[in-house]
């Protein structure tokens, strides 16, 4: 099985689509290739912010990858939610 250099995970997007977190917006065709364009739904935005807040609440010295990910998106969480996380 070959690697996916773009990091795109179609089964993951299909699962999120089924859960109503993302929605297929359009499909662009370039030659023989099709490119699916997804958008985050309102439900997906709520879930994203919930997971982001949860990542700031967890403390893990051994594996702080959740914190690093959360810090990448710190601009997407309100100051109030961030303060509630501590």
TrEMBL record:
It comes from the Bacteria. This is PadR family transcriptional regulator. It comes from Peribacillus glennii.
């Amino acid at each position: 099985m070959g690697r996916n250099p773009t990091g795109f995970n179609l089964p993951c997007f299909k699962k999120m689509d089924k859960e109503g977190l993302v929605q297929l917006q359009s499909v662009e065709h370039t030659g023989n290739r099709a490119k699916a364009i997804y958008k985050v739904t309102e439900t997906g935005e709520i879930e994203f912010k919930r997971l982001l807040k949860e990542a700031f609440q967890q403390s893990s010295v051994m594996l702080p990858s959740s914190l690093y990910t959360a810090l990448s998106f710190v601009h997407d969480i309100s100051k109030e939610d961030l303060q509630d996380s501590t």
